[in-house]
Design brief:
Bound molecules: cytidine-5'-monophosphate
CATH superfamily: P-loop containing nucleotide triphosphate hydrolases
Structural class: alpha/beta
Number of domains: 1
Helix content: 40-55%
Number of strands: 8
Radius of gyration: 17 Å
Largest sheet: 5 strands, parallel
Strand content: 15-25%
Shape: globular
Mean pLDDT: 90
CATH architecture: 3-Layer(aba) Sandwich
Strand order of the largest sheet: 2-6-1-7-8
Length: 238
């Protein structure tokens, strides 16, 4: 069997990572891994339990007991804890903010990294996040870093939230994203940044399929024998 690949997609909120990662994974027949969902899960579950994040032994015990089940398909990445699906709760704005607070904690990062490496052990993975090309999978065969103007990213987030967006001003959403960017880029542990060998794509003026096509062109160049690239249909742009 030919060796299977790990593809990483990093970048800030609203840069288009999830959309592109899902499309790429579906095109290549790879498993889609969303590392942000794991940070969100830690934020959501620790808040529900009223965990004191400054209490190291309690945090360690909490993480040791947190054993989510995972399933990924073309619709997305799903997580269950104790038989309950957590996915619908993980995109709430307060969970978003809290996720970037738990993400500065080294034991939380170690827990997420261990889960991702375990799920990716057979390769054939498209994994998205902030530090996947730099820390989690530094030897990934193909790395991308997506970025876009803050206003564009905020507008995408508002569209994604649909009914809730009416109650959130564009300024408030942009502020929420900028706060998270700052925490993610400035933390001591695994700060958000492009790996030296990542292809950086500015998605401000691109639609998702245009980004996917740029990624596929790079994957073909770096990995001409990748099984999933025996695709015949080029994705249409526009
Ligand atoms: O990607 P998403 O917006 O779901 O990520 C939520 C938060 O999880 C980010 O703001 C960031 O603080 C954290 N995160 C991280 N490292 C990753 C993925 C996400 O620190 N690889």
């Amino acid at each position: 069997m030919e060796p299977r690949t790990v593809i990483t997609i990093d970048g800030p909120a609203g840069a288009g990572k999830s959309t592109v990662a899902k499309l790429l994974a579906a095109t290549l027949g790879y498993l889609y891994l969303d590392s942000g969902a794991l940070y969100r899960l830690v934020a959501w579950q620790s808040s529900r339990l009223g965990l004191d994040l400054a209490d190291s032994p309690a945090l360690d015990a909490f993480l040791a007991g947190l054993q989510p089940e995972m399933a990924a398909d073309a619709q997305g990445f799903h997580l269950w804890v104790d038989g309950q699906e957590a996915t619908p709760f993980l995109r709430e704005p307060q969970v978003s903010q809290q996720s970037s607070r738990v993400a500065v904690l080294p034991p939380v990062r170690a827990w997420v990294t261990e889960k991702l490496r375990h799920w990716a052990q057979n390769g054939g993975v498209v994994a998205e996040g902030r530090d996947l090309g730099t820390v989690v999978f530094p030897r990934a065969e193909c790395k991308f870093y997506l970025d876009a103007a803050l206003e564009t990213r905020a507008a995408r987030r508002r569209r994604e939230w649909q009914e809730d967006a009416a109650t959130l001003s564009p300024e408030k959403v942009a502020q929420e994203i900028a706060d998270r960017d700052r925490r993610d880029a400035n933390r001591a542990e695994a700060p958000m940044r492009a790996a030296a060998d990542a292809l950086v794509i500015d998605t401000t003026d691109l639609n998702p399929q245009e980004v996917v096509n740029q990624c596929l062109a790079k994957i073909r160049e770096l990995l001409p024998d990748t099984a999933g690239l025996k695709i015949t249909r080029e994705m249409k742009t526009g």
